[in-house]
Amino acid sequence: MLNLFQSRSMKVLLLGYIALLLLFFALIFMDSNLLKNQLGIIDTSEISVKKMGTIVNLIEVARKRTRLSHAMLAAEDVFVKDEINQKISNLASEFIHYNQLFLQLEPDSFESKILNQQRPLYTGVIEKIDEVKALAFEETPEADTQARSIIILSIVPMQERIIDGFMKILNRLQQNMYESREGAFSEYINNSQYRNMLIASIFLASFLVLLWVMQRMFTIESRLKSISLTDALTGIANRRNFDEKIIAECKRSKRENDTLSLLLVDIDYFKNFNDHYGHQKGDECLVNVAQTINKHARRANDLAARVGGEEFALIFPGIDEHNALKLADAMVEEISQKRIPHEKSQITDHLTISVGVASIKPANDESWEQLISKADQALYLSKEKGRNQAKLYTATN
Fold first, then answer.
1. Which of 127, 187, 287, 378 is most buried, by CB atoms within 10 Å?
2. Does position 86 have pLDDT exceeding 50, yes or no?
3. C-alpha distances in angstroms, 131 versus 64, 114, 128, 155?
4. Is residue 287 within 8 Å of 277, Cβ to Cβ?
5. What count of other Cβ atoms lies within 10 Å of the Cβ of residue 250?
6. At what angle do helices 78-104 and 46-74 cross, to 10 degrees?
7. Active site residue 310
8. Residues 6+ positions from 135 with CB-CB distance below 8 Å
9. Helix (H, G, I), strand (E, B), or coil: what is residue 390?
């Protein structure tokens, strides 16, 4: 677990997640502050202030009731559900209390009209919440689905209509109070686009953060994939990369009716070299050979890979066996011309390589395993014939 949180990809993901959370809470904070600011700059009339506070409490109770309905469905423990159920019941009492309190403040005709329109909704919400509470305690997938449907299709729309009515009252109270004073804040309150701009800015910032996280994750994953397919010592492809490539190229050659050639390379008497000169010189030798043979993998689809300790392989799509043999001869000659000292070689005083060459043709319906087997037989023949040479697999080998 510790290694998981120390990885770069996890750090980037957590950083992006934290940034999104901060932006989300900033949205909630600014949205809440807008309402608080509205309350803070209104006319100090005692009745108006009480009405505003009561409306705000009614809106908050309505929102909490919806959130608790969702929470009760999500809860698995029956005691937790029962606790949430009690909270919902308490909120119903709070809602009735604040509604009666508002009526005591002598609402005008506009406010009374909206309250009268909303009364049927109050009853409807309570009935639907009772249905949800009953379904939540059934603890079955069907009941859960039905309960969520009730919340989404019935409770939420009714709550939104109730909140919308309260917001109309709230806005009218604000308008009346702002008109009663010269108020430098009237333009700020009346500019409905400001809030929308805040919300749009937050969502845009969240989107940009998400894009950044995705880009960073893609970059990290690409680097990790590249590392996982690269030999750490030589910098060329590793065995895993080779295995994936040869399987893919074999399928492609059959699909496109094309030839595929494979070269297997082995450093002659490398164990003797390593024992005599030491592992550091042995590693330098491997890097030298890898860089030399990698120069011959010039095309985009060519691949040079280290497939064993001192064993290398080259994949050449679209190259026939004769041209592949020419490339192998060139590599043998180039390594020999480097005159890397090898006192313990049994054939010469410098480093040499042996190469096995094989090709498959789509018409023969041969597999990648057969291609490797043929190249391996050709490599064995190269060693048997004295090493420091390349041999092509033929049916008579």
1. 378
2. yes
3. 17, 26, 5, 11
4. no
5. 23
6. 160
7. yes
8. 143, 144, 146, 147, 150
9. strand
Q: What are the strands, taking DSSP E only, across 221-277?
A: 260-267
Q: What sign for the dihedral angle of Cα 110, 116, 117, 122? A: positive
Which of 61, 52, 83, 287 has the alpha carbon at shortest distance from 173?
Answer: 52
Residue located via tokens 């004073």: 181
Q: 127-171: per-residue pLDDT in tens?
A: 877 787 777 777 677 877 887 787 778 877 887 888 888 888 888
Residue 363 tokens, joined: 């018409």
- Take residue 389 and report the two structure tokens written for it: 């040479």
Q: How many helices (H) and strands (E) does the chain have?
A: 14, 5
- CA–CA gap between residue 29 and residue 284 (Å, rounded): 61
Q: Token pair 């909303």 is at which residue? A: 118
Distant-in-sequence contacts of 92-97, Cβ < 8 A, 24+ apart:
92/65, 92/126, 92/129, 94/57, 94/61, 95/58, 95/61, 95/62, 95/65, 95/122
Find, among 80, 79, 45, 38, the residue nearest to 59 by Cα: 38
Write down the pLDDT at residue 117. Answer: 85
Q: In the prediction, which pLDDT does 331 show? A: 95
Contacts of 189 (CB under 8 A, 6+ apart): 38, 41, 174, 178
Which member of 131, 187, 284, 310 is catalytic?
Answer: 310
Give pTM, 2 decimals. Answer: 0.49
Distance CA 6, CA 356 (A): 45
Domains defined for the chain, CATH in brackets: 2-214 (no CATH), 239-392 (3.30.70.270)
